[in-house]
Amino acid sequence: MRGTFIFCMAFFFGIGGALYFSDFFVYFDVSRFIPMALYPMIFFLGIDFARDFKIAYFLKLRNLVFPLITIVGTLMAGMFMGMLWPGISFLEGMMVSAGFGYASLSSLILEAEMGAQMGALALLSNVFRELFTLLFSGQMARYLGGVAPMLSAGSNSMDTCLASILKASGREWLAPSIVHGFILTLLVPILLSVLIFFVE
Amino acid sequence: MITFLQILFIGFLVGTALKSFQIRTSWAGSFLQAIVVVLLFLMGISIGSNSEIVSSLLNLGALAFLIAVLSILMSALLAILLKKITSRFL
Question: ipTM of this model?
Answer without folding.
Answer: 0.82
